[in-house]
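Weekly modeling sync, notes
Attendees: S.R. (lead), two postdocs, one rotation student

Agenda item 3: backlog of single-chain predictions. S.R. asked that every request posted to the team notebook include the full sequence so nobody has to chase files. The rotation student volunteered to paste the first one in as an example of the format we agreed on. Action items at the bottom.

Example entry:
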Amino acid sequence: MRDFQRPGRSAVYANEAMAATSHPLATLVALDKLKAGGNAVDAAIAAVAVLGLLEPHMTGVGGDCWALIQRAGEARPLCYNGTGRAAAASGPGIDRLLAEGATAVPQTDPLAVTVPGAVEAWARLSADHGRLGLDRVLAPAIDLARAGAPVAPRVAADWACHVELLSRNEVTAQSFLAGARAPEAGARIAQTQMCRTLSAIAKDGPAAFYEGWIAEDMVETLRGLGGCHSLDDFAGHAGHYTDPAAGQYRGRHIFETPPNSQGLIALAILAMIEGVDVAALDPDGPAFHDLIARASEAAIALRDQHLSDPEDRFGDEDGGATRIMDEARRLAPQIAAGARVAPSPRAPGGSGDTVYVTVVDRDQTAVSMVNSIFSAFGSGITCPRSGVLFNSRGTGFRLRPGTPGHYTPGRRPPHTLVAGMMGDGRRPVMSFGVMGGQYQAIGHATLLARMLDHGLDPQAAIDLPRSQAMGGVLELETGAAPTLMPQLIGLGNRVRAAAQPLGGAQAIVIDWERGVLIGGSDPRKDGCALGY
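Predicted structure, as returned to the notebook:
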């Protein structure tokens, strides 16, 4: 039970419907759509579209989308892959990078930009599962773009860290800087070009984005910087429905977004710790953090070796899912016994450049949706007429030829984005997500362990300090107890203080027995969970 004499927030309880996002205005927009007769799909899309204006460094129409949708009476959720592909003519550019000795795609290079998938995903999900229509769903975002969105405190703090990136591109600087400075908390930032773009999408659907003047603006912008994208790359984009990655933990059914998403890495971590009596460990103690760290290092190493687009001819036909899970189960006894696996060389880092939204409506339909432009402010490339800020998702490709996830024209990169759902085999029980770049799968496993092993409500589980192990280093949030870092060092970890909070989270539990919804939203962000 929460100590009410200490700072914190309570879980939110409601009867009929609930939304949880990283910004209060987005949560209110979601609830408004529900009260106007919309369902969870309408509300989630409306909230995500608004977040592209409220948190432009995190998401927008220039990014990607994943979604899980589960209705009462359904054993498993629908899953939609709204991620984009590399340009068909990107081969010479990759050869150039390899000839220059590059080991990664630079964030601001046009090669970092994959075709944005979010708009197509919103439109498809709205048409297939929504009630209100895309025009009504996008109306709040259009109004906010016209009037100006107030900058929230956490957003302002993040914005100020990226002035140098924003200054590199003239259009980006004009769009996102006030002179040479980032806007302060409370500043209202209108986005006139984005208002026009969203209005066109609301009127004419995804064709307005992937064809016509918006597509021409996107292609001209990228080609003007030496890029190789074509109108055909945009016109030919399509997301698709797919089966979620599925597993079990403590008798619950856990669903995650499948490859090319890293969602199954959360399942791999859970598989490695299920043989441990996690309930006997303090959920914020050194043994718990050490266990998650060792399992995470092993799982991330498997991810970096095997995860790929299922269409990748150098990877497995399931994107590496079977290989990763088989290896995780093989390693489980070693992890339970205290072993450490050689880590991936990838260094930890990232503050959560993603937005996650969860909504449950009065019909107990749960939506788990994650959207992102990847790095903070994506590639830093903004289109002058449409205001589209491009993603940097192409930096997720590997540059070593002949390996899974290698940068290949027309393929989708390995994705950090993850959305989660938990069920009981007959219906949804919790819609959840943890933002945070590389941390996302680790965050999913940590959240589930703290709830299912320790009985914490979603808010309490979200509030606890986090750690992230990658590249042989364990990052620990500065909000942890002062004794925790030396204790973790004593267990053999190389530990350092995290420079920024590790991600952000939202979750909604459906308590079927009592007929209530229980929500939590991360205090590391500006948002909240609200219901009625």
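Discussion: group reviewed the output briefly. The mean pLDDT is 96.
Action items: rotation student to repeat for the remaining queue; S.R. to check formatting next week.
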